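INPUT
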Amino acid sequence: MFHPVLDAFFEMVSGGIAIVIAYEAAKARSFSKESIFLSFEISFALLGASSVLRALLVLFTVFTARQVPLVGPFSILGDLVQACAGMLAYAILLWVQMKSHLAGTSILLQVGFGLMVLSFNALNVFMLLAIATLVFVRFLRDRNANQALVVLGFLLLAFSHLSNMVGYSGGFLLPVENVLRLAGYLSLLAMLMRVRRVP
Amino acid sequence: MSGATKRYRSSISIIADILNSIKEEEKIGKTRLMQKANLPTDRMQGRLDELIALGLISEEPEDDRKVFRLTEKAYEFLREYERTRMFLNAFGLEF
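OUTPUT
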């Protein structure tokens, strides 16, 4: 395993290269006045900035800690920022590629965008189930009805995304998705009303 | 529906096509240029005026007609265009 400082150095260099690519895309856009380069600018700037930020957060964690920590709040924050920036940047790049290569082939384009939506929904389901599980663990200890409503709300939202994934191709589950989402938010609203009822 | 697909040509590719057509022949008349750059008369005249105004081409009289030549600025423009085109092409895309 590399030392975190070496890791941060590598990450900083990678981020620097991504920023150079973003800069070249900006130059190309300024020269050609073609908006396609904006996608490269934004996506590589996001990738570069998030890598540099993550490296700085790792360095900050290392230099402020008495001993080298494997995981610290700042490095987790860096991981999160990088993952989110990466997801957005790659989605933009994929969008550009699909628009360019699949234009005119509407079925392929639909499949391409469908796969993108599918992967985002899968991630949403995973995160919502994680939230629901963590609140449920707390509910097992506290037996609080408001927590049960929140668990139910997030579970319904997860199922809403799941039904979107299942029914994306034909759209036949769209009403189910919307009903589940509404039910999820109603559950959260019920929790809110119970909380506000407290004198 | 016709089988042939009409490819969109961006403004910058049209300019580059015109400049490359002139570059290939060193100096060129308007009719030959229209054929080489694949542009109709009305659009070609607008583009030529634009390129002259930008200082990319010069118009010179020769015999009883007018010919167009590239300026030094046009060669630099074509180099920059090639770099930009290659950047986009590296990602599998084109203008």
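end of record. The interface with chain A takes residues 5, 10-12, 80-81, 83-84, 87-88, 91-95 of chain B (CB under 8 Å).
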